[in-house]
Amino acid sequence: MADEHEIAARAARDSIPPLAAGRGIELFALDVGQGDASLILLPDGHAPILFDCADDWVVSQFLDNWGIRVLSAVIVSHLDRDHIGGMEGFLRNFTESGGRVEKIFLSEDRSVEDTTPGAILAKSLIDHVIMEARAGRWAVYPVTVSHAPVASGPT
Q1: 57-93, pLDDT tens digit by residue?
Q2: Is the pTM of this model over 0.70?
Q3: What secondary structure does DSSP assign to 55-90, as a single string?
Q4: CB-based burial of residue 101 (10 Å sphere; 0-12 exposed, 13-18 middle, 19+ buried)?
Q5: DSSP E strands: which ranges in the chain?
């Protein structure tokens, strides 16, 4: 019997139309259960963008099904477990299997110095991203997270 990952991968593969050059972007909010992982497919041959990664298996299956081996950017919006739970594993597996990430935009929206499981996970991810950046694997840029009421706007 197929497990939930196989069912999700099959459903995604069977329902996704090919991306045509010259069209707008396509946003895929991947089904990772409780959490976030989205792929932004860009037109005209530009490499896609990964936005958060709660589940490395789901993201890897999506990229494999599409034949994607290069990501122009990976965005880590914030350090909650349901946004980064699979990110470090994904980055390791993707690059070790020949994939390439050009840039990582990393939000460090909280202290990771305590010993809670979430802080340990976040610190491990940050350490990995910085270590690989120093080795020349990718460039790293900060993310500034701003919060505003829904109805806010320029005054």
Answers
A1: 999 999 999 999 999 999 999 999 999 999 999 999 9
A2: yes
A3: -HHHHHHHHHHHT--EESEEEE----HHHHTTHHHH
A4: buried
A5: 26-29, 37-41, 49-53, 70-71, 73-76, 100-101, 103-106, 139-142
55 in a domain, yes or no? yes
What pLDDT, on the 0 to 100 scale, is given for residue 144? 83
Residue 92 lies in a domain: yes
CATH code of the domain containing 106: 3.60.15.10
In whole angstroms, give the CA distance from residue 131 to residue 88: 12
In a domain, 150, yes or no: no
User: Partners of 27 in the beta sheet?
Assistant: 40
Question: Which residue range forms the structural domain that includes residue 102?
Answer: 23-142
User: How many distinct structural domains can be found in the chain?
Assistant: 1
- Examine residue 120 and state whether it is found in any structural domain, yes or no: yes
Instruction: Give pLDDT, residue 43.
Output: 85
Report CA torsion sign: 99, 102, 107, 112. positive
